[in-house]
Amino acid sequence: MFWDKKKPEANKPQEEKRKFRNEALIYFDHKEPKGVTVKGVGKIYEEPKTKRKFYAVKDANITIKPGEFVTLLGPSGCGKTTILRMIAGFETPDEGDILLGNQDINPLAPNERDSAMVFQSYALFPHYNVYENVAYGLKIRKRIGPDGKLTPLSKEEIRKKVSDMLSLVQLKGMEERMTNQLSGGQQQRVALARALVLNPSVLLFDEPLSNLDAKLRISMRTEIRAIQKRVGITAVYVTHDQSEAMAISDRIIIMNKGVIQQIGTPMEIYYHPVSAFVADFIGEANFLEGVAVDEPGQGKLVVDVAGYKFTVDNLGNLKKGDEVKLVLRPESVHIDDGKGLPCKVEVSTFMGSYQFYHVRVGSDLLKITEYNPRGKKIYQIGDEAHLAFNEGDVHILPKHAPVNDTIYLNPTINPKKK
Ligand SMILES: Nc1ncnc2c1ncn2[C@@H]1O[C@H](COP(=O)(O)OP(=O)(O)OP(=O)(O)O)[C@@H](O)[C@H]1O
Ligand SMILES: [Mg+2]
After folding, report:
1. pLDDT for 139-163, tens place per residue?
2. Which residues approach ligand 1 with their CB closer than 6 A?
3. What is the CATH number of domain 284-328+391-407?
4. What is the pLDDT of residues 301-310, one digit of tens each?
């Protein structure tokens, strides 16, 4: 069976294996960033209680470009850490391949891979001070000298590199501190410096900011992004915080129950989610149910919502007669006294920068954020009004866009389905 298939390394020629291993422990001053390719990767775990095997990750396909910042985002238990740990080498895929640049890294142990990981728990060496924590990896690396021989990095060179790195993460002057004499944010900077100083081809982050308070999280994420851009390194970042993902990523990968739902830039995902799950996970989303009543051509579709017709972009393959869901973001809907879709106000709250409404349209409840409310008419609870929005701001989905469930290998003993 595929999960007890032979480890791929058994098939690799010894020579090639040794070459990769040596390379990972060699220090290169200049390196081009490398991309990461995840090809048909699956990871199977067993539920301890029920002994059912399930896919923690199923058929993951991701192509990360050199120098790109990509974030894995999704609810708890969806498989984000599992993907990251497979790239780092802490877990072995049961199916598929992972490549760093053009090299298959499946057979390599974590310390043989040209990647470095920053953990949520920092994982610093407690008996070392800041300087020693950052210098550690450099001390065990060697570089290829002009004569082709491997030589350790000189003390001065290590001192200079650590010093430069501590400046980059704004920890200059803290060299002598022990790690228990640092705040959470400072410890995370040490962890970042320790990873970056090795000049790896890819940097991996698993929820690095979740132990920090809200304000520090925002400033640290901005710093991580700025440093990543300056250094030009490829980064794979795990979070379940959608605003963190939006703020730092070139592209976001949305996962649910082991399956990748969508990969795209923050804008693509926000404006064109592939499913209600994605729309709801990234930002706030309103859904209105309707029916496609006409296909006027030029990629448009006319939809009917409670007798009101809208002409919207048809990015999927929706056809006349299909039941659809309109996705509308709270900031693109307005309340007015015009002739739009009738609604009734159920919540009206002044939030300072915006007035927040809940309005009912038939059986659907919509959230509306009316920014800069000063001077605008404020609707009160119980008021009857109308909705206004630009048709260009509407995104449509099939009414029953599929959301996957956990994929079991032996579903017959699934007690829920008895
Ligand atoms: N060693 C393991 N043995 C069995 N099941 C595991 C193991 N590690 C993780 N899992 C399960 O695999 C699934 C994916 O776990 P993973 O840690 O990748 O989730 P995550 O997306 O990182 O979640 P979180 O946001 O909570 O960190 C979960 O159902 C988890 O319980
Ligand atoms: Mg996790």
Report:
1. 988 888 888 888 899 999 999 999 9
2. 45, 56, 74, 76-82, 240
3. 2.30.30
4. 999 999 999 9
Q: 417 by DSSP, 3-state: which? A: helix
Residue with token string 């294996």: 17
Q: Which atom of ligand 1 lies closest to the CA of 75? A: 25
Are the C-beta atoms of 278 and 311 separated by less than 8 Å?
Answer: no
Closest CA to 326 of 385, 403, 255, 273: 273
Ligand 1 geometric centre to CA of 342 (Å): 45
Helix (H, G, I), strand (E, B) or coil at 403: coil
Whether the model pTM is above 0.85: yes
Fold entry, domain 334-388 = OB fold (Dihydrolipoamide Acetyltransferase, E2P) (2.40.50)
From CA 226, how far away is CA 417, in angstroms rounded? 49
CATH annotation of 2-270: 3.40.50.300
Domain boundaries, the chain: 2-270, 284-328+391-407, 334-388
Measure 82 CA to ligand 1 centroid, in angstroms: 6
**Ligand 1 nearest atom to the CA of residue 85, by list position:** 18
Ligand 2: distance of its center to the CA of 206 in Å?
7
Q: Which atom of ligand 1 is nearest to the CA of 84?
A: 18
- Residue environment code for 171-209, b if the CB has 16+ CB neighbours within 10 A, otherwise e: beebbebebeebeebbbbbbbbbbbbbbbbbbbbbbbbb
pLDDT tens digits, 7-54: 444 445 555 555 545 566 788 877 888 999 999 999 999 999 888 999
Mean pLDDT to the nearest integer, 91-106 = 95
- Pairing assessment for the beta strands 384-388 and 334-336 based on DSSP bridges: antiparallel
Residue 220 CA to ligand 1 center (angstroms) comes to 26
Q: Which residue owns the Cα nearest ligand 1 atom 2?
A: 45
